[in-house]
Amino acid sequence: MGRPPCCDKANVKKGPWTPEEDAKLLAYTSTHGTGNWTNVPQRAGLKRCGKSCRLRYTNYLRPNLKHENFTQEEEDLIVTLHAMLGSRWSLIANQLPGRTDNDVKNYWNTKLSKKLRQRGIDPITHRPIADLMHSIGALAIRPPQPAPSPNGSSSASSYLPAPALPLVHDVAYHAAGILPPPPPHQQQVVIARVDADAPASPAADHGQQLKWSDFLADDAAAAFEAQYHHDASVAAHGGGGGSILAAGSSSAGGGDDDAAAFIDAILDCDKETGVDQLIAELLADPAYYAGSSSSSSEMGWGC
DNA sequence: AAGGCGGTCAACCGCCGGGAT
DNA sequence: CATCCCGGCGGTTGACCGCCT
């Protein structure tokens, strides 16, 4: 059997907190600390769920919280971090002392996303809206692509338009200390891909349709990425981090082009590294779909 | 003065991973 | 090993407020 339930949900109060409730919660946390939220309502004399108490405390009553407006520096940092992390509000809030994830999330949804749109920047991809429209249009009417690539492994990266902000993503990751400095070859790859905006479809090589496996890195690239990323992720996240792209190097090089193999590769890598948050980041960032398969290897996501 | 409307933000909901039993 | 709950998270809701007509 597991633990007993945290609270009697039929007998808990919901809705806005009263000053009396705040005082009780503050009095309790100041003397007993914040552990074991399950017991907090009972011991503090509150008819609230422990979860509600925790939320109230962390978002409003916690000491050292800033309640004033966001500064320009905080605003810039949020935008930068959102470009890197997507809607990982807790991670973003960790970089902003005195701010909660709820604060950051609300500020983004109510202010910053609108500001970006007014400046002609898509708040999801952080790319110029005009650039996005151009990309969409190019995809919709893309003619058959000549220019076959001699190396199939890099074909996917050159097939789709390069994202406008790969350098922002990469630099910001390293600047924030989330990833260690990239090895020299990665910077070269970034520059090469940004410069190479001439589309060349892998499908055009043999007149085939694009495969799932075309989005998997080749073995040679994966080998280095595997070691680098593993080390980096352990250092940065205590074992966290992983790349879906280099993940099934066995299946990637083997020409297994169905969706199941692709997904298996993702899952294998995920299990191997022990974390999947970076995958979630990738999935949350459409720029990487539109950009290239090499984006994640540039960031050191190899396993 | 009153109703509509949009912005803000506290709080809730539901999901997930990890840990306790 | 299986079950179940806790804590944390992101998404969403709804109350409140100010502005406009």
Structural notes for this entry:
By secondary structure, this protein is mainly α. It folds into 3 domains: 9-61, Arc Repressor Mutant, subunit A, CATH 1.10.10; 72-118, Orthogonal Bundle (Arc Repressor Mutant, subunit A); 129-139 and 153-298, no CATH class. Helices cover 56% and strands 0% of the residues. The chain is built from 17 helices and no strands. It has helices at 19-32, 40-44, 50-61, 72-85, 89-94, 101-118, 129-140, 155-159, 166-175, 184-195, 203-206, 219-237, 249-253, 259-273, 277-284, 286-291, 294-298. Helix 4 (72-85) packs across helix 9 (166-175). The longest helix is centred in the last third of the chain and has 19 residues, at 219-237. Mean pLDDT is 58; it is low at 1-5 and 143-303. The protein binds a DNA duplex (21 and 21 nucleotides) through residues 1-6, 14-17, 36-38, 50-52, 54-56, 58-60, 87-90, 101-103, 105-107, 109-111.
Defining traits:
disordered C terminus; 56% helix; repeat; Arc Repressor Mutant, subunit A; 303 residues; DNA-binding; disordered N terminus; mainly alpha; nucleus
